């Protein structure tokens, strides 16, 4: 299938113009053309998420949770995936936004005859204000309001079960709405416009002309328990208002008031959507197999939880003041790791099980990017860095004033002992290549971090009965190895694999974790080498040198901004780079895993928690530099104690 | 009539009925959660409704079991298979008459004729409770047959 993109405004350097208005040609076929990855917005209920294209089409949805089979997957197969489109029949100019500080998505269509707003929201899960009311288990509500003139809309509801593998049979059930069963669950679509099921039952359509002031409403709900709740459409406006209020209340809790508040809040709100509230897990992304190279095979399922993200995520949540979410995530992490303790897997399912075996689906893939995979084979890899990330996450929690109970202390000590026994092994490393194990500097760095944090936790009184002398000895040995075998005199840089001449962007984290001062000669020189070998002319950064022509790695650029903020450059250097990187967000402020260095478009699964965590981290470090504070990981123990005392008081 | 035997066998048969219905829901045969359905007569709060509904169902089963015992005594026929036949008959009645009356009886249930309203938002069961899954009748027949069979055999043993 050919890949037809509609026009998107780009600057010469590849970054996006904002706000981004776009003209769509008339007609249902053209408006259903392939959106780019960055043309999607996300709505969710902290258990599942839907991607809505800028053309008003829901093209990815898995219910009842992120990692279940899809009911809409047109993002991966235009013909068979399934979609739910509400869009103007006429050519229209499109702009989008989230209602400020919420995850309520608004798409504005302006046609020659009038203009209208489509508002999308996924209810339940998050909004805990109304537990005494009936609530569907899962629900998307959509509203179209004509704000001027008149606009004709077409509604095309075309669900496909199990990643598009099977059609559904839609029935009209009196005035209750349209219903179809998938497995042991039931979907109900209620609409204020009569939708006509197609003869074979797998689709329902309608068209309607709206005049200024008129609105139409839709509710799609899912339940695995009967009786299901069927909310009346007359209450949808009030429910939109309540959801906006609830998200607004959540947003107000954020303890960041710096220059980049809007983007930091968008990232925090996105991170919240990617959390699975029943367990506290945070997934890497809500999608599978959006390609790292369009048309290529670098397509992975990211609907699982990577321990790699732990310390960055905990730090972001704690510094923003989201203690509940941080504690939930820490609890999930320790619960999940208990299954394999003291050995850790690199990724887990939403409930802490081992992620499913990888398999391929019979779908065309995004722009013919095949195969489409579900499950993840990286589950069997060894990454020694995850120990350091889990221990650092717990340490950050403690340094922020959290309490480590006896059980948690015991777990941390056992993890530390495991690191002490195994830090000298080869592993697959942070980037999860599928060609064998090597001695990665980043893994050594995180083993050093594990030892260092356990010693500091002991010194601060958070950890008792730990063999700190052992930890200190191993910490020194790792440091000695990194300084000798991970340093290249030829490149004048740290290198990504011991005794090699290879570079990768994770070397910037030597400063983040406090191993090397950002302004030390070796780090300065390493930074210059990374820019020389991994940088692009438009200021982005590849994660490593690769012949695969994948995109630049978005979080690496935020690591770079954070490295500059930590002392690797001037404050202005950090601010300028950060401001530049903000231009690569889509018009809603969302990022994918990678950025196409030529077009500035998003690549990989979308939106990506890791990138948004990186954005928050960089913004926080810039703020700390502005305020003259040190990053927490680098503050001396007495400063922690002081910070805790202040927090307690 | 042996009152003690009725109390014990009615209680155990009702527990078995509840267990079977929950099991068939867990296995995906039906979506119907009977405690939730009954509990929402009293409250819209999901978790509370399930607890209320469980006790209502228990009392309901107990109350119904006295009818079974009265029939056993009047027919002088107490056996597991006669109990099972009574169970199947009750299931048929519940699925046809009971479920059809449900939108009218339940204060929070919508109807196909009027659709949901602010006060009535629950999905009605429909004929034979088929709205709750095509295999719901199977689940209900099975559970009630087992209910009657357990009641019949336990009451027979205790006489």
Secondary structure layout plus pairing:
The complex is a heterodimer of chains A (649) and B (159).
Chain A: E1 22-24, H1 28-31, E2 40-44, E3 49-53, E4 57-62, E5 70-72, E6 83-88, E7 92-98, E8 105-110, E9 114-123, E10 138-158, H2 161-164, E11 166-167, E12 171-173, E13 177-182, E14 185-191, E15 196-197, E16 204-211, E17 215-223, H3 236-252, H4 261-273, E18 275-276, E19 281-282, E20 305-306, H5 310-320, H6 323-338, E21 347-348, E22 359-361, E23 372-374, H7 385-399, H8 406-422, H9 441-459, H10 468-485, E24 487-488, E25 493-494, H11 509-512, H12 521-534, E26 552-553, H13 554-568, H14 571-582, E27 594-595, E28 602-603, H15 609-626, H16 637-648
Antiparallel strand pairs in A: 1-7, 2-3, 3-4, 4-5, 4-6, 6-10, 7-8, 8-9, 9-10, 10-16, 10-17, 12-13, 13-14, 14-17, 15-16, 18-19, 20-21, 22-23, 24-25, 26-27, 27-28
Helix pairs in contact in A: 4-15, 5-6, 5-7, 5-15, 6-7, 7-8, 7-9, 8-9, 9-10, 13-14, 13-15, 14-15
Chain B: H1 3-26, H2 34-39, H3 46-75, H4 80-105, H5 136-158
Helix pairs in contact in B: 1-3, 1-5, 3-5, 4-5
Can you offer a commentary on this structure?
The complex is a heterodimer of chains A (649) and B (159). Chain A contains 16 helices and 28 strands. Chain A has 649 residues and is an alpha+beta fold. Chain A folds into 2 domains: 22-230, Beta-galactosidase, Chain A, domain 5; 260-629, Alpha/alpha barrel (Glycosyltransferase), CATH 1.50.10.10. In chain A, a hairpin with a 6-residue loop joins strand 15 and strand 16 (204-211). The termini of chain A are far apart. Residues 1-12, 25-31 and 640-649 of chain A have low confidence and may be disordered. Chain B is mainly alpha-helical and 159 residues long. The termini of chain B are close together. Chain B has one domain (3-158). Classes of the chains: A alpha+beta (649), B mainly alpha (159). Chains A and B meet through strand 13 and strand 14 of A and loops of B.
């Amino acid at each position: 299938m050919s890949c037809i993109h509609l026009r998107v405004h780009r600057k010469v350097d590849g970054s996006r113009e904002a706000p981004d208005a776009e003209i769509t040609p008339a007609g249902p076929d053209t408006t259903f053309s392939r959106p780019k990855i960055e043309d999607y917005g996300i709505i969710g209920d902290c258990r599942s998420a839907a991607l809505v294209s800028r053309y008003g089409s829901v093209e990815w949805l898995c219910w009842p949770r992120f990692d279940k089979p899809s009911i809409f997957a047109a993002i991966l197969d235009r013909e068979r995936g399934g979609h739910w489109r509400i869009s103007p029949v006429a050519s229209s100019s499109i702009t989008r936004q989230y209602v400020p500080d919420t995850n309520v998505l608004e798409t504005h269509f302006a046609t020659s005859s009038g203009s209208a707003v489509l508002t999308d929201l996924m209810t339940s899960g998050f909004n805990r204000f109304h537990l005494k009311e009936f609530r569907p288990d899962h629900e998307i509500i959509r509203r179209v309001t004509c704000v001027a003139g008149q606009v004709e809309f077409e509604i095309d509801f075309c669900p496909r079960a199990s990643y598009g593998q099977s059609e559904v049979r839609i029935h009209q059930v009196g005035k209750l709405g349209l219903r179809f069963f998938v497995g042991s669950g039931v979907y109900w679509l209620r609409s204020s416009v009569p939708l006509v099921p197609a003869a074979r039952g797998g689709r329902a359509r309608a068209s309607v002309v709206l005049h200024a002031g008129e609105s139409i409403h839709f509710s799609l709900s899912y339940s695995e328990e009967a009786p299901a709740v069927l909310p009346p459409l007359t209450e949808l406006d009030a429910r939109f208002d309540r959801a906006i209020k609830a998200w607004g209340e959540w947003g107000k809790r954020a303890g960041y008031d710096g220059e980049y508040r809007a983007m930091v809040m968008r990232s925090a709100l996105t991170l919240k959507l990617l959390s699975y509230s029943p367990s506290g897990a945070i997934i890497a992304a809500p999608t599978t197999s959006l390609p790292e190279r369009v048309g290529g095979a670098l397509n992975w399922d990211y609907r699982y939880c990577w321990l790699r993200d732990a310390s960055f995520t905990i730090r972001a949540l704690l510094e923003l003041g989201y203690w509940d979410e941080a504690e939930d995530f820490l609890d999930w992490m320790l619960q999940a790791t208990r299954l394999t303790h003291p050995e850790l897997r690199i990724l887990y399912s939403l409930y802490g099980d081992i992620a499913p075996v990888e398999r391929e689906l019979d779908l065309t893939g995004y722009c013919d990017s095949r195969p489409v995979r579900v499950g993840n084979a990286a589950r069997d890899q060894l990454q020694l860095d995850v120990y350091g990330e889990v221990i650092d996450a717990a340490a950050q929690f403690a340094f922020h004033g959290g309490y480590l109970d006896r059980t948690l202390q015991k777990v941390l000590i056992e993890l530390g002992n495991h690191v002490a026994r195994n830090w000298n092994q080869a592993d697959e490393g942070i980037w999860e290549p599928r060609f064998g194990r090597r001695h990665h500097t980043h893994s050594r760095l995180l083993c050093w971090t594990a030892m260092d944090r356990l010693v500091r936790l002991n010194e601060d009184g958070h950890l008792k009965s730990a063999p700190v002398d052992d930890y200190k000895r191993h910490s020194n040995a790792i440091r000695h190895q990194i300084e000798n075998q991970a340093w290249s005199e030829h490149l004048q840089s740290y290198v990504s694999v011991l005794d090699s001449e290879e570079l990768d962007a994770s070397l910037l984290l030597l400063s983040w974790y406090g191993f090397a001062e950002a302004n030390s000669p070796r780090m300065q020189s390493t930074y210059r080498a990374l820019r020389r070998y991994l940088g692009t002319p438009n200021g982005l950064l590849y994660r490593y040198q690769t012949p695969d022509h994948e995109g630049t790695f978005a979080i690496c650029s935020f690591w770079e901004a954070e490295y500059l903020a930590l002392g690797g450059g001037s404050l202005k250097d950090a601010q300028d780079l950060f401001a530049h990187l903000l231009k690569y967000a889509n018009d809603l402020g969302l990022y994918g895993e990678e950025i196409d260095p030529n077009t500035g478009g998003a690549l990989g699964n979308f939106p990506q928690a890791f990138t948004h965590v990186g954005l928050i981290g960089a913004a926080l470090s810039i703020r700390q530099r502005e305020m003259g504070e040190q990053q927490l990981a680098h503050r001396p123990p007495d400063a922690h104690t002081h910070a805790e005392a202040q927090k307690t008081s | 009539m042996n009152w003690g035997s009725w109390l014990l066998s009615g209680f155990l048969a009702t527990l078995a009925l509840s267990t079977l219905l929950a099991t068939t829901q867990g296995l995906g045969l039906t979506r119907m959660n009977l405690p939730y359905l009954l509990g929402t007569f009293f409250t819209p709060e999901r978790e509370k409704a399930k607890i209320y509904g469980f006790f209502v169902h228990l009392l309901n089963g107990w109350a119904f079991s006295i009818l079974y015992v009265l029939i056993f005594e009047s027919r002088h026929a107490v056996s597991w298979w006669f109990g099972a036949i009574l169970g199947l008959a009750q299931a048929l009645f519940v699925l046809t008459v009971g479920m059809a009356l449900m939108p009218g009886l339940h204060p929070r249930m919508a109807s196909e004729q009027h659709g949901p309203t602010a006060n009535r938002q629950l999905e009605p069961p429909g004929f034979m409770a088929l709205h709750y899954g095509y295999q719901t009748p199977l689940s209900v027949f099975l559970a009630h047959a087992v209910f009657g069979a357990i009641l019949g055999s336990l009451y027979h043993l205790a006489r």
